[in-house]
Amino acid sequence: MSDLIRTFSTMGPIGIARLVNATASVLESAAKVTRLVDRVLKKVAAKNNTLQNLRDALTCLRDDIELYQTLLSKADAAILSSRWGAVNQDTNALEEALDHSKLFLDFIMRTHTPEIGTLSEAELATYNHNVEFYRKENMKAFKLLWYNLYKHTFSAHQGEFAVSNQGAKLSNTLSTAFSLFKSNPFIVADSTIPLNVLNSNKDTIEQYEDMMRRTGKGWVEGRLSIKDAYSTMSSTDDIGVLRGVQISLFELLWTKALEQWQVPLESQTEIVSEPSPQVLELGLEPEPTPDQRAAHELNKLDRKLQTSISLANKQTFTTAFCGMAKAGKSSFLNALIGASILPSDEFPSTAWPCRIRHVEGQKEPELQYDQAPFLVALEKLRDWKYGAAMKQFEPPEFIDDDTPRDLVDGMNVWQWWMDLHPTSKDNLEQFESPHFQLEKSARGMEAVANLLFQLNDIVRIYQRYGPVFGVGTTDWPLLTLEFPSLSGQKMQGIFEFIDLPGMGEHLQRFENLVKTVAKRSDAVVPIVSLLNMQHDGSLQTLPGIINACDLECNAVICTNLDRVNSDNEERQNSLVTGAFWPNRSAPPQPGIIRCSALMGISAQTLLAMSQNELPVFETFWKPNVGYHAAYNILGKTGKKAYKRLEYDEWMEEIREQITESGLPDAIEASFEGIVKQARLRTTLQELRYVYRIVCNRTNDYSRILQGARRTKAEYDQAKERFKRDKESYNKLLDEWEADEATKIAKLRGKIGQLLKKVEEVANRSILKAFRQTLQNKGEWSRWWLPDQVKECSNEAWELDINGHSLEEFLRLSQQALSTSLNKLRIEVTPIIQKLQQDACKERGDDLITRIKKGTFEEDTLKQQIEQNIAYELPSAHSMAGVRRTQIKAIVEEGYGILPAIYLAIHSVLNRGSITSFSGYFTRTTIHTDTIMETYQKEIVVPWVQKMEKNDEKTVMGAVAVIAKSVFNQFLTAEEARFREELEQIAQPMDDVTLERKVKIYGNLVATKAALEEILRRTEARMPADRHQDVPIALQRSVSSI
Asked: What is the value of pTM for the model shown?
């Protein structure tokens, strides 16, 4: 905050400095109320939606004001000082709005600090409404101030551009329109010469459109022509400057233009027709009226623009790394940041995500985190006292019906306790001590590493004995320090990495975590171990998870390069390419990144130790982080070889080790390749979204002006043309729907064949789980092993077993089966998705082709329908609509596919000879065929049925419903325009209204042209091979899954 105040301290006026202080005060008050609400939310057992809504509203308010601060910090103090009179009034208005917000928030703190959780639903709803009210007032005042700041300050940095106009009669009018745009780009402004004449006829409006298109494109070219252009990105590279121009355009649209494009409220209250049964069945939104559609789109666009501006100003580029447990994620990140801080190697694996951020000049690492959820978990561990109990626990030699239940329960805990890492056991002993204090933060290498170990162990042990540890992404610990690999470089923005826990037994939990992190990351990069990738399941499961999360995979990091034979590189790369990009002969860029994190970081350590002279041999020749590279250089002879080396030779050997580790290339790819492509993808997504809505609004105004200049005779002719077009569209849609049954049958056959194979594999997984359970005797409690196991065949066993042993067998075999079925689901889900997507794409492409080939008299309407069909249906360009609703629902319904374990136990215990148990510890003989049959009925069959519950007919039906919705939307809108036009003929639009609409239309045309130019330049910078592949190839035989 002090930086902002210093920025404006050189100005004559002190209004901006006061404004910055006001934003700081509101942020502080909002943060206090948010913490108050958070404390209550964590205490209440049931979910309080109204209180959560208040919390969400406070978060939005804080996000808004943080954005105001960031944008204000870019104001040019010198120019602003000379133009102070133009914005002084706006500054006072915003300051007043912020003061009102602060007074309200302070009132909540004074009045309800102890008992906010006891307020009624109505009182909380009132507070929520008030927060939204003050938020809107702040937003309104800020937008006005920011637009005027641009107008009086930033317009000096928009670059010079000129556009010639044609037509002598329109020369003055077109020149006026161009001058208005130059002084007020994309915004309606007053003019001395009226512009109504530009809508006189088709020829005049086309000249106007042509000039405004060239003007919009010229604005982009003018902004790009100056290197010191005002740019949110403040970057000198092509992508950064282009992104800066894009955000400048977004700021102009967000602060002023959208307000001028808005639909009057009275036009949004038209009656909406009842939704069709198909719409209700599929859970789709009912069809809005044309004005409601426009208003809804503009409201969404307002939020989208604000989000884009906020993200661009924060300039935080986040990359998350995911992989199997012990695949080397933390080791790679340690090498990336140049410090062995994150848990890796011999230490317990990562249990909770950690964010790592580069901060230039911060040599000493610092760890910050939200302590509250960890203290809650810590209190639970103290209540349980499992660590103290296990230190004194003595497992009994045998157990029978007289064994106390608490001793049986203790054996369960003891079995889990034995699996804990010794470091985790020591930490648990500390956690249970009443004198243990969890540090709120840490600074310094050792302190940060210790605190991170403790936080990971709290989560690890808590989740072992209790429920899932769950908090929001903003609560993930944040580690900040300077990355040596980035030191001294002029990095634009904040670079942040996320270290995720490895994928182990809990595949479902891991998949949910990847989905969560994907929402806040620019890229999620898989890490696989070259040493274990063929055996740890990473090539089978990771690609499916990446695809299920709708992520684009452009890079895979392969670790442990130094521990595999370099002769196998081609085969290893082929395996990775086949898993993640099966439909390609070669991976995209940056593609496969091979490295050895351990070699790299040990060589870096040696390099740091050898900066001035040869280090003492004993300081690195021991099992520490520098030993690995030293052994590679010196070999077994060690000290003898070291004595023969000169300093320059030693340094050259170390640098060679760093190069051979692949770490420099991996670091460059992580920043340059992955981050830049992520930035480009984000830019393209934003541009395409904004462009579509601008196109719709441009067409709306084009149609309004067309109606305003037509005579009654021209209107009648146009109405007849529309009637003929409407009949043609309805006929086209009927013909397209006629072959739906054939398409559905074809898709049903493919999915049915797939699921039949899947069920066969799932049944074989039961036998695999039985065999694994009986072979892995180390996982059984010592007295719960079957007394006798007789293998009747390769697929059946006869067990002499008691009730406790049966329960243990069921628990372990279901655990093994759950792991197998989850892996199978992760592999199968993308195949089902791809089948459905291909079918939907085929249907959508077929419809678009029919529209293109169709003969229609009104081209504008045709273009609107075609463009929105392409956006709404999962076509080659956009996998929206169905994919986001129906297909994703299928994936989500796959969660929790296994019934509760005791359901299966109950089913087994009530069959055959098992019901003859006189006691839980009485032995009897049971055949695994009995359990096999129950597992098939209770687990496999429901699991397969869940996968086909939202079948292909529903998905294909959604395609038809969405297509009809798009047709109806634009045909209904056109009918409404004809009704309005008829009213205008009877009572023509007044000159003031007409001129305003002409100006808005011209600015929309310029906006569309500017977006097209930015899109064209951005797409040209994307790699040619950017198209995403489905990680599981359909060409692979289904039976090989």
From this structure: 0.74
